Amino acid sequence: MDKVVIHGGNRLAGQIKISGAKNAALPIFAATLLAPGVFEISDVPDLKDIRTISKLLEEFGAKVGKVGSSSYRIDSENVNHHEASYDLVKTMRASCLALGPLLARLGRAKVSLPGGCAIGERPIDQHLKGLQALGADVRLEHGYVDLRVNGRLTGSRVTLDIVTVTGVMNIMMAATLAEGRTVIENAAGEPEVVALADMLNSMGAEINGAGSSVITIDGVEELRSTSVRIIPDRIEAGTFMVASAITGGDVKVIGVVPEHGATLLEKLRDCGCRVTESENSIRVEGPDNIAPVNVTTSPFPGFPTDMQAQFMALMTLAGGASVITETIFENRFMHIGELRRMGADIKVSGNTAVVRGVAGLSGAELMATDLRASASLILAGLAANGRTSVSRVYHLDRGYEHIESKLAAIGADIRRERAT
Ligand code: EPU
């Protein structure tokens, strides 16, 4: 099995160009199922999840081609198949983003029900509640969710019980082709939701309010293909900013939207980092002594759950105790056991971790459990004494484009050891 091997202790300095956002690209790829035509998508990150969703679109009849290093051409003219196999869906939960578009375009969508994963149970009841409100007949049989509608969906008022990112995306995509108005209340306002709404509007949809907690969609009879550029990955940017902070470095991330990371920037400043923002870059200068800072994850614009593990790695070296509370996923503390093996002092009670900073971490052989946990272990390895190896790097490859070469370019001693 491949491993990432790090010799810690180097101070990172330099510039990193941030890639397109995985969590914006996945729904945008799914949205191409809504209308026949040729879509041009640029700034797509080179990631395993992108290859998986490309295969998924091909199962439905689309043609997906890569153009150059980061653009895709998707021809969805012949989308005529409504079923996605378990083999594909089990490798990526975001496959369920096909439900809304297929249902709206073909009147039928059958996708294997995603199971739980390392960070939590992650049901899709809210997706289904919304699609049912729009008129879908919902059946759960033999591990598949099977949705049908005769004719068009019908606009409706949908009040979500919890804030769900992909749930809102699914309902919003389905509602674009429904008859009449849909109002989604308690909607997620993540930048990726706004990016999807912008794309849908450029296809001819009529969506208002994306980014706020109430989204209104006036259904249209048909949509057309479009060109779209993927927004920068705020979580990749955040991970490199923490890399700067934890190594006392001086790193500038470029090609970013600073407002997308405002809460994290505030927390980095509280830790003692010097943070300088420009229109599309953020420079983070790490402090000599990291101050302890409490964080609680919450939906945007709160502190992102996708940065919790990385921030915890930083807190393991703070000059005091910090409290980290995870409110989005019930099991997103899998990195703690591995951080402890490096000498971190972390006590967990329910969804709260108390992290008492230690003077140093020591390199160790580690195992990644999920995507952001892997990033957290790499950050810890950058600051640790000696050699750290992180195995199960396939988690990392799902969401970080060329992370080793990007970190090596700013001074990290990091490389991938291929399994022989
Ligand atoms: N939930 C339900 N029912 C639903 C939907 C969600 O109970 O029908 C619960 C979830 O179990 C979770 C909470 O609601 O406890 C929030 O989940 P959400 O639906 O918002 O998460 P998601 O849409 O499945 C996306 C990202 C995640 C990110 C979360 C939260 C994509 C493809 N995934 O997941 O990204 O953590 O939003 O911001 O956009 C990652 O990139 O590492 C990652 C896990």
Describe it.
- The structure is a single chain.
- The chain is α/β, with parallel strands linked by helices and 420 residues long.
- The protein has two domains: 2-19 and 233-418, Enolpyruvate transferase domain (UDP-n-acetylglucosamine1-carboxyvinyl-transferase, Chain, Alpha-beta prism), CATH 3.65.10; 22-229, Enolpyruvate transferase domain (UDP-n-acetylglucosamine1-carboxyvinyl-transferase, Chain).
- The protein is 31% helix and 25% strand.
- The chain is built from 14 helices and 24 strands.
- It has helices at residues 22-31, 48-59, 86-89, 99-106, 125-133, 165-175, 191-202, 234-246, 262-270, 308-315, 335-341, 371-383, 394-399, 403-409; strands at residues 3-7, 13-17, 38-42, 63-67, 71-75, 83-84, 108-112, 137-141, 144-148, 157-159, 181-185, 206-208, 214-218, 227-229, 250-254, 274-277, 281-285, 295-296, 321-325, 345-349, 352-356, 365-367, 387-391, 413-417.
- The strands form six sheets. It has a four-stranded mixed beta sheet. The protein has a four-stranded mixed beta sheet with strand order 2-15-17-16. It has a four-stranded mixed beta sheet with strand order 4-5-3-14, covered by helices on one side.
- α1 packs parallel to α2, α1 (22-31) packs parallel to α7 (191-202) and α8 (234-246) runs parallel beside α10.
- The longest helix has 13 residues, at 234-246.
- It is elongated, with a radius of gyration of 21 Å.
- It starts with a strand and ends with a strand.
- The mean pLDDT is 96.
- The structure holds uridine-diphosphate-2(N-acetylglucosaminyl) butyric acid.
